[in-house]
């Protein structure tokens, strides 16, 4: 099994950019957001359970999960949201674990936005946090998602604080600049991780 490096950061921190830089070195990327979609694909046990609970209207005409309808259904119903989390979180964790076992690169990157919040760093050997100032997070997310600052602040409030993430981190990438220095930061960490995996010969 590969050395597992966890990658996390708040919204708008640049996790995807950083993950792509590691991928350029041939490192396997296991992305929780992608896994979360895979466990509810047509034909999956996850989707069958959701359809049984919410009825056929929860599906689009092509048999895919209607995410907007599901979001609306659980938005004002904490009990349903809890049911969904109880169903999907173990499935997502199991699939991520299976993907880690199948990884063939020198080490693999487990990308989880809510890593610290859900205590998923227990699945990793080291935790890498992409750190960014809050004002920048707000500005970048507003620009990317075309939403107002208030909405971004609400999302930030539901996530771990910068301090909580940094306290859990083994390694930190600072992304307060324009991103020009990210390749150098990733290159240095890549060498460090190869050394940890015993492959820096």
UniProtKB/TrEMBL annotation:
GO terms for biological process: coenzyme A biosynthetic process. GO terms for cellular component: cytoplasm. Signal peptide: none annotated. Its main location: cytoplasm. Catalyzes the phosphorylation of the 3'-hydroxyl group of dephosphocoenzyme A to form coenzyme A. This is Dephospho-CoA kinase. Its EC number is 2.7.1.24. ATP binds at residues 12-17. It catalyses: 3'-dephospho-CoA + ATP = ADP + CoA + H(+). The keyword Aminoacyl-tRNA synthetase does not apply. It comes from Photobacterium aphoticum. CDD domains: DPCK. Pathway: Cofactor biosynthesis; coenzyme A biosynthesis; CoA from (R)-pantothenate: step 5/5.
